[in-house]
Design brief:
about 425 residues; mainly alpha; Nucleotide Exchange Factor Grpe, Chain A, domain 2; 3 domains; three-stranded antiparallel sheet; three-stranded mixed sheet; about 5% strand
């Protein structure tokens, strides 16, 4: 038993060694020579029993070492596989990197070519572009001066239109109120003396007609206020636009043609804007003057034309109706014409429009007077004014000493020969 124990103690040193060291120390080929451990035991009957036991223990230990070795081999196989994948990834990465570097070089080359082209174009045609810009600036400054003149005129007539609207609205309201008062007076006369009412009624219908004429002026007044303004900015050439336009040009003659054409197009565009402002200024002035001449003056003519007939009628009625209350009412009724005329004349005066002054017997001025007939009159000079048949009106132009004739005076001219 003691011998066996010594053998185990001797082999305990292998327990602290690695499997590879144990296998190496056992010298498996030499000990087994291709036969199993059991064969070795029976072929050597002289082998002590302790050595047989030790040999069996060594064989068992050797099997365990082989198992561990197989595990290491499997680990090595997995490691080899991972190494192969890594090599593939590295290869793909290098290919992508090479492709990226190649594309980067190509992009850099394109950018350099584009930069050279831009620099070449800019350098080559910069003087031509600057000359075109300078020429356009001078032309634009002149155009701005001309356009500014028309812009100021438009704004002037806009301001005058606003004054016209405000003044005429007030005048129409005042005239209508005065005519309503006349209508109330007519109702009083009708209640007191229907006969007197009937004799006044024809003339009163003329006053009502004037009222309707004045009320119809409200819509045209509203239309005068509605207008849209074009832009005050005039188009001009920009350097970056020209550079972009010429980016692909290489021939200087072609570049000059393009710049000349562009200058003309720009000038034409500005001219259209100037013409638009000019037309608007003329239109605004014409609308303003036409309203006075075609809309307002006919209403004033109606008052002037009716007043002489009313004067004769009221004179006759005052002689017929001696009662003081009737005479007062007739005077108030007749005053309606004068009140309406004064309201409209004051409104015109506030707008710069006045009646033309004409003196009977003065020579005819064919620039200001419109003869509509002739009559002999030994008391007046030949070709002098005998009678005014329709009043004329003139408008004092803004910031000017001269006046614009809105409507000539219609006159009868003396003809003694």
């Amino acid at each position: 038993m003691s011998t066996k124990g010594n053998k185990y103690d001797a082999n305990d040193d292998h327990q602290d060694n690695s499997p590879e060291e144990v296998i190496s120390s056992l010298s498996i080929p030499e000990q087994f020579s291709g036969s199993s451990p059991d064969d070795q035991i029976y072929e050597s009957p002289s082998t002590p029993s302790g050595e047989l036991i030790n040999l069996a223990d060594q064989a068992e230990f050797t099997q365990n070492a082989q198992n561990e070795l197989m595990i290491d081999v499997n680990y090595q196989s997995i490691s080899d596989t991972n190494t192969q994948s890594l090599e593939n990834y590295e290869k793909s990465y290098m290919q992508l990197l090479e492709k990226y570097n190649k594309q980067s070089e190509e992009l850099k080359s394109v950018k350099e070519s584009l930069y050279k082209l831009e620099e070449s174009t800019k350098f080559k045609f910069e003087n031509l572009v600057q000359e075109a810009i300078k020429e356009d600036c001078l032309s634009c400054d002149e155009d701005n001066e001309e356009c500014k003149k028309y812009i100021n005129l438009v704004k002037l007539w806009q301001s005058k239109t606003e004054d016209l609207y405000s003044s005429m609205s007030s005048a129409i309201n005042a005239c209508c109120d005065r005519i309503i008062q006349c209508g109330e007076l007519m109702e009083q006369i009708n209640g007191e003396n229907p006969s007197l009412y009937n004799r006044l009624n024809d003339r009163y219908q003329g006053i009502e007609l004037i009222k309707r004429m004045l009320e119809r002026l409200r819509d045209p007044l509203e239309l005068l206020k509605k207008s849209s303004l074009p832009s005050e900015h005039l188009f001009r050439l920009e350097e970056q636009d020209l550079v972009y336009l010429l980016r692909s040009e290489i021939d200087e003659r072609e570049v000059k043609k393009i710049l000349t054409k562009k200058l003309k197009e720009t000038g034409d565009t500005r001219y259209k804007s100037i013409r638009e402002w000019r037309d608007l200024a003329e239109k605004s002035e014409k609308q303003w003057l036409n309203f006075i001449e075609k809309k307002l003056l006919p209403a004033l003519d109606g008052i002037n034309n009716g007043k002489p007939y009313a004067d004769h009628l009221v004179d006759d009625l005052i002689n017929s109706y001696k009662i003081q209350s009737y005479q007062e009412k007739l005077s108030i009724w007749l005053q309606t014409y004068t009140d309406l005329e004064n309201i409209l004349l004051e409104t015109l005066k506030s707008l710069g429009v006045e009646q033309m002054r004409v003196v009977l017997g003065q020579p005819v001025d064919y620039d200001r007077h419109e003869p509509i007939g002739t009559e002999p009159d030994s008391n007046l000079p030949h070709e002098s004014i005998k009678e005014i048949t329709r009043n004329g009106y003139e408008y004092k132009l803004p910031d000017q000493d001269q006046s614009l004739i809105l409507r000539s005076v219609q006159v009868l001219v003396v003809k003694n020969k």
